[in-house]
Amino acid sequence: MSIKLEQSEEIIHIAKKHMIVYMAYWLLAFFFIVAPFFFMFWLFGQGIWGQIAFFGALFIGLVILIRTIFLWNKNSAIITTHRVVDIEQRGFFDKTVTEIPYSELDFVAGKIKGIGGTILRYGTVIINNQAGTMSIVLEKVKHPVRLQEKINKYKKSFNAVYSDKGVCLNCNSKRNSIFEIIDKKIKKSELEELIKIKRAIDIKISKLLENNNDI
Predict the structure, then answer these.
(1) Residue 32 domain boundaries
(2) What CATH number has the domain bearing residue 107?
(3) 52/152 same-domain check
(4) Domain shared by 102 and 191, yes or no
(5) H-helix segments, the chain
(6) Distance of CA 82 to CAs 12, 19, 103, 108, 148, Å?
(7) Residue 214, class by beta-carbon neighbours within 10 Å (0-12 exposed, 13-18 middle, 19+ buried)?
(8) Percent of the chain clearing pLDDT 90 (strictly above)
(9) Is 81 in the same domain as 54?
(10) 105 and 11, same structural domain?
């Protein structure tokens, strides 16, 4: 699982749906792959059509298994030091990517509901942006409360770092504009430092020239 990371951005956690979500597909794949072997001799005794049925069942089982593994692996939420990215894969050629940067994140809630969720520790995490125009709903993910705490922790860390730089993180602006402001502030700081160094060098040169004149 990979996304294009920004400068100084790191992936800290990848949340996936609990494997129990795909239990019906696991069982179906297992049935189509295993069942033909119990009837293998009988099927092969039926000639070409029996062989077609045997290998056809295996093929269907493998397709279901590969698709299930693919969907389980691709459907995930990527938590980075800068944002939350939700990747929703509905099929081999159907993918939706949604992201909410910490600078725009407003509300995070994690909940566990039902006997199955309580026993297996899976539930739902809801993430909303400040404008209320975007929402990420992570259903049946493992340890939703821990995930909520982790997102809030890194949101606070992100806000603390960039608030110290004088950047407005509660404004409804694009993330790119925020980093442009930071970049400008860094360049300004570097320029001021260079000016101080230049002044110190000028003073030192002036003193040396005065000493030479006295000699």
Answers:
(1) 18-74
(2) 2.30.29.30
(3) no
(4) no
(5) 23-38, 40-44, 48-74, 114-120, 144-163, 175-214
(6) 10, 28, 8, 15, 15
(7) exposed
(8) 20
(9) no
(10) yes
Of 77, 79, 78, 87, give the one whose Cα is nearest residue 155: 79
- Structure-token pair, residue 26: 């696991």
CA atoms in the 13 A half-sphere facing the CB of 195: 6
- Does residue 3 share a domain with residue 101? yes
Residues 155 and 98 in one domain: yes
Tokens of 107: 């509300």
- The pLDDT value recorded for residue 117 is 85
pLDDT at 172 over 50: no
How far is Cα of residue 31 from the mean position of the Cα atoms in its chain? 34
Query: Has this prediction a pTM greater than 0.85?
Result: no
Residue 110 has φ and ψ, to the nearest 5°, of -125, 135
- Phi, psi angle pair for 170, to nearest 5°: -95, 0
